Amino acid sequence: MEIKYEFVTGEVLEIEAEDALGEVLLEFDRQEKNNERRETRRHMSLDGMDFEGEWFVSSEDTEGAALCQEDMGRLTQALKMLSPEQRELVLKVYFNGMRIVDIAREEGVGESAVRDRIRRIHKKMKKYLE
Question: What pLDDT is stored for residue 51 in this prediction?
């Protein structure tokens, strides 16, 4: 029995084999073909997908989101380094949008005292975040 092999390079090789051995080799080829058909019918191969195409397109900037999350974690840690009074001042100025004049009036101190406290907070946070 002649067995014919086709290689990826396009080369074709024919060999002579005993009938019993040839039948076994043909059975192996048939089983391999059936297994491949069964697998590809139920599953999609990533090799066959276009990684730059629609399957993997995302409007999310995952790298930017990860960097932002990392920055937020560092900022949270830096805020924990502040005293409770300093954290409250940061919340008033940067998160609640209060003006320094209003904070000074509320606390009964001068604007320069509030500005000095903010400057010390900046210095402390900058040292931690470097």
Answer: 58
Q: Which long-range contacts (CB under 8 A, 24 or more apart) does 30-34 make?
A: none
Token pair for 127: 């040292």
Query: How does DSSP classify residue 9?
Result: T
Residue 130 token pair? 């470097």
Dump pLDDT digits (tens) for 36-91: 887 766 666 666 666 555 555 566 777 888 888 888 888 888 888 899 999 999 99
What distance in Å separates the CA atoms of residue 67 and residue 36, rounded to the nearest whole number? Answer: 42
Distance CA 101, CA 103 (A): 6
Rounded Cα distance, 108 and 102, in Å? 10
Which residues, at least 6 apart from 80, have a Cβ–Cβ distance to it below 8 Å? none
User: Are the C-beta atoms of 88 and 118 separated by less than 8 Å?
Assistant: no
Domains of the chain plus CATH, in order, are: 2-48 (no CATH), 76-129 (1.10.10.10)
* Helices and strands (DSSP H and E) totals, the chain: 5, 2
